[in-house]
Write a structure and sequence with these properties.
68 residues
């Protein structure tokens, strides 16, 4: 289960970063989320941070499970 959380975190984090980067450096958000929803730049930043938190949680949980 922790592997799935880590993968979801990585994907969400990447999509959030792509959305923010596209809004700042391009003419619109990059990635897949803008094809389904209209998300403001702050929303992409929140998605990036939430994805990073999930990815770190999943990766540390996997590491802890390997040590035991």
């Amino acid at each position: 289960m922790k592997e799935i959380v880590a993968v979801i975190g990585w994907v969400a984090g990447i999509q959030g970063v792509l959305g923010v980067a596209g809004r700042i450096f391009g003419d619109g958000p990059w990635g897949l989320l803008h094809k389904w929803w209209e998300i403001p730049t702050a929303g992409y930043a929140v998605i990036a941070v939430a994805g990073a938190v999930l990815a770190v949680y999943g990766e540390t949980a996997k590491t802890r499970a390997k040590r035991v």
